[in-house]
Amino acid sequence: MTAVPPEAAAVPKERPRSGPPGDDETRGLFRASDAVFAELSGPRHVVETANPAFFRALGREETTGVPLAELAPELAEQGIIGLLDGVYRTGRPYTVQDARVLLGPPGAMNEAYYDLTYEPRRGPGGRVAGVTALGVDTTAVRQARQLAAEQRALLEQIALDAPMGDILRAMTAAIEEFNPGVLVSVLLADADGRRLRHGAAPSLPDFYNRAIDGVATGEGVGSCGTAAHRRETVVVADIATHPYWEEFREPALRAGLAACWSTPITGTDGRLLGTFAMYHREPLMPREADLALAAAFARTAALAVERHRTKQARERAEAKERAARQDLAFVLEASTQIGRDLNFHDSLHRLAELSVPELAPMSAVDVLDGGRLTRIAAFAAGERGGRWPQPSGRSALRPDGETVARVLATGVTEVARRVPPSPGPWRELGVTGYVCVPLSWRGAPFAVLTLLFTGERPLQGRTVALAEELARRTAVIAHNARQYTERVELARDLQAGLLLPEPPAVPGAEVATCYRPAGEGLDVGGDFYDVFPLGGGRWAFMIGDVCGRGASAATVTGLVRHTARAVARLVEDPARAVAEVNTALLEGVRHGSAFVTLVYGRMTPGKDGLEVELVRAGHVPPLVRRGGRRVEEVAAGGMLLGVVPDPAVRTARLTLRPEETLFLVTDGFTEARSADGRFLGEEGLAAALARAGREDGAGARELLDEVVASVDRFSDAAAPSGDDSAALVVTAR
């Protein structure tokens, strides 16, 4: 350890005295050597001859003729003078290896390790006249050897990603082990480098570690704060008097600390990572070996800290990525749940439900409807009892009517980490903050999602971003649902105008009908049916299928129904009525797709039952169920309407006796497809009708319901049909 020039007063220099004659050649050899050599005379061990290395080791000027105990009083305190006394008295040499000695004047002592040999020097007659002292400084070798071993062990731990605390504690323990009397402390810098935090200091008292934990970096702030500020080693040889230690002198002295040498720990980019400090319990200046040791271990500490911070950064990045994936998964799953049914109110209801507890402990959704704010749903954790749990009923969950109104007016999310300003059960609920997120469509807010937070579940920045993303997706879903609902309702209303609201009560007959739209019911279908009176106890009926869907199909359906109703009272023969409908289609429709299949007929009560006359124009053949489950197909033919001027239809006549049934359907029934691709067909429909209901006494509704169920079973695993289906069933009574 190379000493910094001591600040103590120099010992007065005396003129060298000439000693007894000796071996000039030997003295000359040792004078140029780095080994310590001295010839001591008499029981007081007077320095007669010594080489420059001896005086450098003692930290004194070259002076002879002075007892060694007076030249270096510290040797007596360490027992060295006593060893010399023993050699002088017994005449036996003494040898020791790696002996630790403290050399130097008070306030500037240096620690060193030597291999020492004390040989008796005999005079005439063989009596011991003095002692020859020879020493080889092993400090550097010893420390280099230990340093290399410890460095290897520490680097292995760093490479194995051992915890940084374990590495720093092992480092401090290693230094303290081969430097007895040294107490090591590692402080770690905050991210901004403004303060130093406790890292490792196993030998320092806890109260002292607490006292310096969080010390600021700055000029004159102890050894460590100053070293961190300057980015260079700072040596304080005497804590008791140095001005840098004014703030921390009391705890340092109470801990028995007298000197502190601090080296900054810096990263490869020059950023401050911390400080490496070596304390001593007596005033002491470092030598070059000490400073080199501190620098070496500071570099090792820098590797450990940088690797630890890199690992932490990687773990934070991985945690952030996991959280982002979880957030994305939540948003995707929630969006799927919210949009599973295209219903405006249900989508907003699910938004409130799914927000608890994933986003917040409590949630509510309010909708602006007709200029008024309406609560759609409100949920609190623990209240999700069923598929559609009831709203919490706390109308006060709205944090502030003005806040919600302001969010609706501005379209900007409002975030508050405080209790809502409006009166409410906030203390009871433990509310500590809230978020109001607008749901907007094309810049126009129409609803607000409110999230309430508690001390157990505080508001976080990522929650706001998640809520905004979920609200944005829900706004699109809700808007589409509203448009879908309006379109379905419009289609339903139009379809209802083309169908009978309820089957009429026909004397002597039971009438049953059904209509099932294809797909999601967004368009008006082309299937229709009608039953209406003609007077005189007669009734007209029809069932048909218009080519196409939507507005054009609705137009054609209306034309067919109204034309048939208009001419039915004017012509007796059903074939003539159908011919008039065909003419109306050819003359009145300009879009070129007015193709219609139709069954039109009349029924009149008779003595044997219902007398039926009907015409089939390209439609599914009518079926008649007789007694004994016998099913017949009505033989009536003709072309579909709207194609040629003469559809070549002819009237068929039959009698429905009591309990016998006329069964009319559109091709949505016969074209029902099974999972393996088979069509039900006309034969399958006839078989289903034969199996349906009771053998005797089955009415129109019973038969229709069972045939519909049979068709559904046939196509249960198949894709949904792309065609509407309608049925008109008449049972004679």
Automatic annotation (TrEMBL):
All copies of the GAF domain together span: 163-315, 343-488
**InterPro entries listed in its UniProt record:** Bact_Sigma-Reg (IPR052016), GAF (IPR003018), GAF-like_dom_sf (IPR029016), PAS_4 (IPR013656), PPM-type-like_dom_sf (IPR036457), PPM-type_phosphatase-like_dom (IPR001932)
Query: Pfam families under this entry?
Result: GAF_2 (PF13185), PAS_4 (PF08448), SpoIIE (PF07228)
Q: Which domain of life is it from?
A: Bacteria
Instruction: Using the UniProt annotation, give all residue ranges assigned to the region (Disordered).
Output: 1-28
Q: Which UniProt keywords apply?
A: Hydrolase
Residue ranges of domain PPM-type phosphatase in the record = 509-732
SUPFAM superfamilies, alphabetized: GAF domain-like
Q: What is this protein called?
A: SpoIIE family protein phosphatase
